[in-house]
Amino acid sequence: MTPADSGPEGTRPPPTRRRPGGRTARIRQQVLDAVVAELGEHGYDGLTTDAVAARAGVHRATVYRRWGDVGGLLADVLDAASDDDWQPPDTGSLESDLAALNQEIYAALTAQPPIMAALIAASFRSEKAAQAQQRLWEDRYARCEIIVSRAVRHGELPPRTDARQLLIAATAPLYHQLVLLRATPDPQLPGHAARTAALAAAAGSFAEPPSARDA
Amino acid sequence: MTPADSGPEGTRPPPTRRRPGGRTARIRQQVLDAVVAELGEHGYDGLTTDAVAARAGVHRATVYRRWGDVGGLLADVLDAASDDDWQPPDTGSLESDLAALNQEIYAALTAQPPIMAALIAASFRSEKAAQAQQRLWEDRYARCEIIVSRAVRHGELPPRTDARQLLIAATAPLYHQLVLLRATPDPQLPGHAARTAALAAAAGSFAEPPSARDA
């Protein structure tokens, strides 16, 4: 749901993002850091492979050869964001787990510089970035399903609950308000959207009908 | 919530979109129709003022003078979309009103050619288009508040209900799934998102706390 370093500030020390792997991995990290920095400073329109190469201290031919173009660079930033050990918050109840998750998303969507917003905007410009953004969201939503399975285990939700629909309902208002409607950020929004989804879940909105097997 | 002609097909005959006003109004309509057609065929990247002028049969100087650039053309398409008599569906209950509204949004977001999706994408490219898209959404959400006030009048909801939050909760999953996540369209989605919002509303999720006056 969030790019590589969009979790609450300070929860993970930066060095854990650097994986072993020698020169190739180090160059990749330098280049991707440069993409994020350039994107934050200049947005998509100011992002060029040359500026990224210069900032990363890497030869431009290396960047062209490995990433091709700006779309390839953005896609690799998004793909790298999944390459972490992020787990959704575990706070003890469905509503508070969803609220904590929404706080992370809210923080990422309102951060300065607006990296996540710029990556989402870029996904409307570059098909490669769009596909990588989809893969990242799929990864994040899949990891978040544990919030729902914990709530099922604790007896908060019926066993057959559509986890994905519940997670979409909980998080969609943040994206809609902040990314599409461009509303003034409302600090109540994360908690309220979580509460709405939890109330609807308690009322059976995401309960799947029994399958034919159970009939 | 929907651009000018994105309501269910055939509910309004096209001639009602043409307002009296003579040559200036007629030229505007020709140009805006051409923008929509070009956008549908070629997307934002293929949209040029010259192509719009040619398609509309209008001199290019007229287009430059009146609309300036592609952003100005898109902004006027979006502004013109509010200049109609659209009202949200009135079906007799909160959930079915929201479901009918969501059906309209779903139809617009999955239409071919994808005009609404292209306009939303364009709002990530042009600041003028972004501001006009915001104005259009504001107009549509304001008009939809009558859905909530009717439900209050019928005793379905408490008098102090946050209409906007309820409408955002009902509609956000469609935009999130279809515009951002680019999920395969699921015909169950409009009804399900409506039902989720209605269940949360019935559970008190959008009830505003009593104001100081009532204390």
Automatic annotation (TrEMBL), chains A, B:
Recorded coiled-coil stretches: none
Transmembrane segments annotated in the record for this chain: none
Stored PROSITE patterns: HTH_TETR_2
DNA-binding region residue numbers: 48-67
Domain HTH tetR-type, first and last residues per copy: 25-85
Alphabetical keyword list: DNA-binding, Transcription, Transcription regulation
Molecular function GO labels: DNA-binding transcription factor activity; transcription cis-regulatory region binding
Location of region: Disordered: 1-23
PANTHER family in the record: HTH-TYPE TRANSCRIPTIONAL REGULATOR RUTR (PTHR30055), TETR-FAMILY TRANSCRIPTIONAL REGULATOR (PTHR30055:SF148)
Protein name according to UniProt: TetR/AcrR family transcriptional regulator
